[in-house]
Design goal:
- With 139 residues, this protein is α+β, with helices and mostly antiparallel strands.
- Helix content is 45%, strand content 19%.
- Helix 2 packs antiparallel against helix 5.
- The longest helix is centred in the C-terminal third of the chain and has 26 residues.
- The chain is elongated, with a radius of gyration of 19 Å.
- The protein starts with a strand and ends with a helix.
Length: 139
């Protein structure tokens, strides 16, 4: 499960970004992805946008990679989507790890990745505005 940080579907923004030098545009994208990754590596109970922690495996699986047009930030753990979006479970099934039987048929999602991206959105807009001002002012 991952999220890509890149400009798509925003024609006016893309036109403005095309005036940016390639170096500045990449720097803005890298900063956004890095900040999302850094928050993902923090505990959700202490950091808004952080990762929920039970065993720590999900938080450890947070990663970032370069993709065409930007960066991808996500989790390599196979159960990340279930924690993000929620999942079904079998009522009455005994789970030794918690020492209890399951009582609910649905566990709601925690939307940790969505919260992380939402937190980054105003920062991203401000960074783009500053980069555009530098580019226009620098010419």
């Amino acid at each position: 499960m991952s999220i890509n940080v890149r400009a798509e579907g925003m024609e006016r923004l893309q036109e403005a970004l095309s005036t940016l030098s390639q170096y500045r545009a990449e720097a803005v994208m890298l900063k956004q992805a890095t900040e999302i990754l850094n928050r993902a590596r923090k505990n959700a109970t202490t950091t808004r946008g952080g990762t929920p922690i039970d065993t720590g495996e999900l938080r450890i699986s947070a990663s970032m990679s370069e993709v065409p047009g930007g960066y991808s930030v996500g989790y390599t753990s196979e159960y990340a989507p279930h924690v993000e979006y929620g999942h079904r479970q079998e009522v009455g099934r005994y789970v030794p790890a918690i020492g209890k039987r399951l009582v609910k048929s649905w566990v709601p999602g925690q939307y940790f990745l969505r919260k992380n991206v939402q937190q980054q959105e105003p920062i991203f807009k401000e960074d783009l505005r500053k980069a555009l001002e530098k580019e226009v002012g620098g010419k």
